[in-house]
Amino acid sequence: MQRSKIAGIGYYVPKNVYTNNDLSRFMDTNDEWIQERTGIKERRFADRLEETTTTMGVEAAKIAIERAGITAQDIDFIVFATLSPDYYFPGCGVLLQREMKMKEVGALDIRNQCSGFIYALSVADQFIKTGMYKNILVVGSEKHSFAMDFETRSRNVSVIFGDGAGAVVLQAAQNEDQGILSTHLHSDGSEAEILAMFYPGSHANKWLKDKPAYPDQELGGLFMTTEQLEGGAALPYMDGPAVFKKAVVKFPEVIKEALTANNLTEKDIDLLVPHQANLRISQYVQQLLGLEDDKVFNNIQKYGNTTAASVPIALCEAWEAGKIKEGDLVCLAAFGSGFTWASALIRW
Ligand SMILES: CC(C)(COP(=O)(O)OP(=O)(O)OC[C@H]1O[C@@H](n2cnc3c(N)ncnc32)[C@H](O)[C@@H]1OP(=O)(O)O)[C@@H](O)C(=O)NCCC(=O)NCCS
Asked: Would you place residue 323 in the very low, low, confident or very high pLDDT band (cuts 50, 70, 90)?
């Protein structure tokens, strides 16, 4: 089977920069707390009305497609990863297909939060390997700012996340030493609710605890009372310390799994591009694997955690900065809500 390779890569971040000090205008937080706990200095927030998860994905996709030397008409499959879609349904894949005037190709939406991009890459990789498709567009995009609460009650969540998009075009590799060597996907739903957003969802009532929506109603329940919404029923929930503890175990585990599967070791990694969850998590993983500073790429300082977009944005920035050369061994790894975690090993 032919391996797949990244033939083109691009990213897009909105122009609105919000520093930690800017956030302290809305909530009780400060630059020192945020930098010390997360490494984040600033993040980008999309225009509230003009930009969406899809439009940002389109901007990143245009660059990836151009760099692959093809046109949007050549794309024969779309895989779109996001947790902040434009609509509850349909997904962003079809909206991107419409926006980019692509042919009536298949469009698949991936709901795997922070590991969404690597899951999407893995799915696309299988389609290239079997020869089913030739040019697959893989997108990770998030507009978190629209669903976050900028009040003190949500400060542990809203200081972490930012908006942006990244995209790659996957094609069959001509050189057999090149391309995606393997991908590794995992999940453990036993703690699904410690990093979650329950509404809108068909099981949301259970998690609204003492205040389920319309408890006396025979059917329905999606529509909440104004009081419930104002009380924060539709906000993301995160038990930060619990996420941290699990992430520092699963990141190294899934990286080692990828290396072992390819008879390689930590010393063979030229660049590790971890999902940008928290700079402290990346530094801990780096230390555990014994990697030098120039072998790990981080940009969370500028963009915060952009969930499904974080790996392709970081990969693209690293590539643009000349940190990835032909023949390099690049490792991608992610961990997030679900829990789900994943890795990919690529010979560039
Ligand atoms: C979220 C995270 C930064 C919080 O750091 P922490 O050291 O665990 O902090 P805690 O949640 O224990 O809170 C410590 C204190 O800081 C306060 N605090 C929380 N957010 C704050 C903020 N933005 N500014 C100031 N103070 C804040 C808390 O209220 C708490 O105060 P208290 O001690 O008076 O009760 C950290 O747990 C983390 O990064 N976890 C991983 C999250 C993650 O990666 N999520 C994405 C998954 S891919």
From this structure: very high
In the annotation, is 305 catalytic?
Answer: yes
Angle subtended by helix axes 31-38 and 279-289, to nearest 10? 30
Catalytic residue among 20, 184, 275, 299: 275
pTM of the model: 0.96
Establish whether 186 is a catalytic residue: no
Report how far ligand 1's centroid is from the alpha carbon of 39 (Å).
12
- Domains by residue range for the chain, with CATH: 4-172 (3.40.47.10), 179-190+238-347 (3.40.47.10)
**114 carries an active-site annotation:** yes
* Active-site option among 114, 144, 205, 278: 114
- DSSP codes of every residue in 223-289: SPPHHHHHTTTTS-EE-HHHHHHHHHHHHHHHHHHHHHHTT--GGG-SEEEE--S-HHHHHHHHHHH
Strand order, beta sheet including 340-347: 179-187, 340-347, 329-336, 271-274
